[in-house]
Design goal:
The structure holds two protein chains of two kinds. By secondary structure, chain A is mostly helical. Chain A contains 13 helices and no strands. In chain A, helix 10 packs parallel to helix 12 and helix 11 packs antiparallel against helix 12. The longest helix of chain A has 27 residues. Chain A is globular, with a radius of gyration of 20 Å. The mean pLDDT of chain A is 87. Chain B has a six-stranded parallel sheet with strand order 2-1-3-4-5-11, with helices on both faces. Chain B is α/β, with parallel strands linked by helices. Chain B is built from eleven helices and 14 strands. The N and C termini of chain B lie far apart (72 Å). The chains are: A mainly alpha, B alpha/beta. At the A-B interface, helix 1, helix 11 and helix 12 of A face strand 7 and helix 7 of B.
Chain lengths: 309, 365
């Protein structure tokens, strides 16, 4: 059944398929580490997708397109940041509203951009390295965003673990009253973290509309933001596990299409639902019992902070 | 006295209006308002784009006598009835609903508005006398594509993105495969079902999976240009076809040819009939000969001899001397479908629910 599938090409394409989820999930991980639950990832992603697409088409540069996508995500996340941190609105409700608003707003901005080809994002040419039999296609034949996504994961891991900045961020997320007593600006840290999350979600969205598909259509992110949210929990708020989770999900998504193309005898409907089923399955295992996973959630997650309380 | 006069004249007016209405209908309408319902955005570059181009051509042709209204991006579900009802209430005389899944809602709304004409594309239900159906013989175009695919593939693996396993799509797959096989007996077909008409991300992923499997010619039966966009990333190694619309932005490769749905003649004929009073319920199914299915320019990426063979095939189909489904053809399970020399009756085609012999994989139900 697996005979017709070339594993190295499969791995190469699952890495490409996972990029948007990695970016959005690592951004959301930082946001949640700071004690903010932003359920608007899907909305920020799709806004990043359309802002990136419009910028790329208007300027003719895919680099500027990614920049525009990140900027769109930041501006949109600021809406969330101000509403929840300054005006103290409920984070869950605001996040959900952000997603619904983002889907509608992106559709509005996207009017007139259907069916247009964006400028191409070239793969980084590593010359002869890409021709190495098995490792070549896996490691050395991708576009810069893919390498960037892995770099961001490493960066977030390093900062959270080894730097003072990371320590402050975690302190704010674990106990905002203590962090406040020590003189850290809780609200400012949280808004900055939210903006980082917005930038990453926007980049992930722009990757979908500029590289993966590459074109614009309403609802193009098709639930990737929700998967990213699930993967943060799945990863129990650990950066490298985000990478693992995203590759697992991306891998099954790609595998099921490859199985279809290879003529597997499993009914298509089961294959199509398999990535989601396995995500739910792993989530249940991770969060059941008294494992470390459920204890690892930032203690102040989803709690609003007010200095005078 | 005065009151009675008023009553009388009102009644007379009512009768006159009714009579007037009837007479006018028999003679044809002065002015027609035509509604169009599309499943995807009109800028999808494929199916809905082509319907809308024909709607605009209709408007152009009749000028002031025709007013067109349209609604795009209407999902196949509860929204359809609402949109159709809204159009009927807002004074449309004729409504074209242009997706297979609009079939039941169209018939349901048509039953409530007997004076409005409904035209449903690609369906088969005509429950009331004001519902007509129209379709095009896309499988004729698929035969030409299949021939090109069989000749052009280097890996002997060709692919097909299916939307839903309905007769219209199966006709295309079977015709494509049979003619690819005829051109190249070693050819193998992989089918991936997307279970959507319009989802560029999903369509692109499906094409990527096919390419990963070594497929180098891809045909699609979905509505966007995403399959060609994905094929374009391979730098000419993988070719494909424009679907529903010419998709010229991907010329000369990966788009080496296309099937163009040309609904203009049909729309002009039907609205024209409404204007001159000759309108009647129909079940229209035209192909290459009737001008509804056009084969888009075969580009220079295809060698001249293959191009001329493909064009000859098109001309034979157009002239009626060749039917793409001519026996002997067996079904996938090995049972005989068409005996030698027999051509497929339309009824068999419209109810097609099987792969022909040689296609691998199970047909989803």
């Amino acid at each position: 059944m697996l005979g017709g599938i070339n594993p190295s090409i499969l791995i190469a394409s699952l890495m490409v398929a996972s990029v948007p989820i990695i970016l959005a999930a690592i951004g959301e991980l930082v946001v949640e580490k700071a004690g903010v639950l932003n359920l608007g990832v899907e909305g920020m992603m799709i806004l990043g997708a359309i802002c990136g697409f419009v910028t790329a088409v208007e300027t003719g540069s895919s680099y500027l397109g990614f920049f525009g996508g990140a900027l769109g995500g930041i501006i949109f996340s600021l809406v969330f940041g101000i509403l929840t941190q300054v005006l103290m609105s409920n984070q869950v409700a605001t996040g959900l509203a952000l997603t619904l608003f983002g889907l509608g707003l992106s559709s509005l901005i996207g009017q007139g951009y259907n069916g247009i080809k964006p400028p191409a994002t070239s793969t980084i040419s590593l010359g002869p390295l890409a021709d190495i039999p098995v490792l070549g296609p896996i490691l050395f034949d991708h576009d810069w965003v893919l390498y960037f996504s892995i770099f961001v994961v490493a960066l977030v891991w390093g900062i959270l673990k080894y730097t003072r900045t990371g320590l402050i961020l975690r302190a704010v997320g674990e106990n905002h009253d203590a962090a406040h007593a020590l003189g850290y600006k809780v609200i400012r840290v949280r808004i900055l973290a939210t903006m980082f999350g917005g930038a990453m979600a926007g980049l992930g969205g722009a990757y979908i509309s500029l590289v993966r598909v590459p074109q614009w259509t309403d609802g193009i992110t098709a639930g990737a933001g929700w998967i990213a949210l699930a993967i943060v929990v799945f990863a129990s708020w650990k950066p490298w596990r985000v990478l693992l989770g995203a590759y697992l999900f991306g891998g099954i998504t790609v595998l099921q299409l490859n199985l279809q193309a290879a003529g597997a005898v499993i009914p298509v409907q089961y294959l199509s639902m398999s990535p989601y089923l396995i995500t739910i399955f792993v989530l249940v295992i991770m969060s059941s019992g008294k494992g470390k996973a459920s204890l690892n959630a930032p203690a102040a997650l989803c709690q609003n902070f007010h200095a005078f309380r | 006295m005065q009151r009675r006069t008023i009553l009388k004249s009102t009644a007379a007016l009512g009768v006159a209006t009714m009579m007037g209405g009837k007479v006018a209908f028999a003679r044809g309408l002065e002015k027609v308002k035509a509604g169009f319902v599309y499943i995807s955005p009109v800028a999808d570059g494929g199916w809905s784009f082509q319907h809308h181009q024909s709607a605009l051509a209709l408007q152009e042709k009749f000028g002031d006598k025709v007013e067109i209204v349209w609604q795009e991006n209407v999902p196949e579900g509860a929204d359809v009835e609402r949109v159709l009802t809204q159009m009927a209430l807002s004074g449309c005389n004729i409504i074209f609903s242009t997706s297979f899944g609009y079939m039941d809602p169209t018939n349901a709304v048509a039953a409530k508005f007997p004076d409005v004409k409904f035209e449903h594309a690609t369906g088969y239900k005509r429950n009331t006398s004001n519902v007509s159906t129209y379709n095009a013989r896309f499988y004729e175009g698929r035969a030409v594509q299949g021939h090109i695919a069989g000749k052009m593939t280097k890996s002997n693996k060709i692919g097909y993105i299916g939307s839903f396993p309905i007769p219209e799509v199966l006709m295309g797959i079977n015709s494509y495969y049979l003619h690819a096989k005829k051109a190249n007996p070693a050819v193998e077909l992989s089918v991936v079902w997307a279970f959507t008409w319009f989802d560029p991300a999903k369509e692109a992923d499906a094409v990527k999976a096919l390419i990963d499997q070594g497929v180098d010619v891809i045909a699609s039966h979905t509505d966007s240009t995403a399959p060609l966009a994905e094929a374009a990333k391979t730098g000419g190694r993988v070719i494909g076809f424009g679907q529903a619309s010419d998709m010229p932005e991907y010329k000369p490769s990966p788009r080496v040819s296309s099937i163009i749905d040309n609904w203009t003649p049909y729309y002009i004929k039907r609205v024209g009939a409404l204007l001159d009073g000759s309108y009647a319920q129909v079940d229209a199914w035209e192909g290459i000969a009737g001008g509804e299915v056009l084969i888009g320019e075969i580009t220079d990426a295809v060698p001249a001899d293959i191009k001329s063979e493909a064009e000859a095939l098109r001309d034979f189909i157009s002239a009626g001397t060749y039917h793409p489904f001519t026996g002997p053809i067996k079904k996938q399970d090995g049972s005989v479908w068409l005996a030698s020399g027999v051509t497929a009756p339309d009824g068999d085609l419209l109810g097609m629910n099987f792969y022909v012999e040689g296609i691998k994989g199970n047909l989803p139900s």
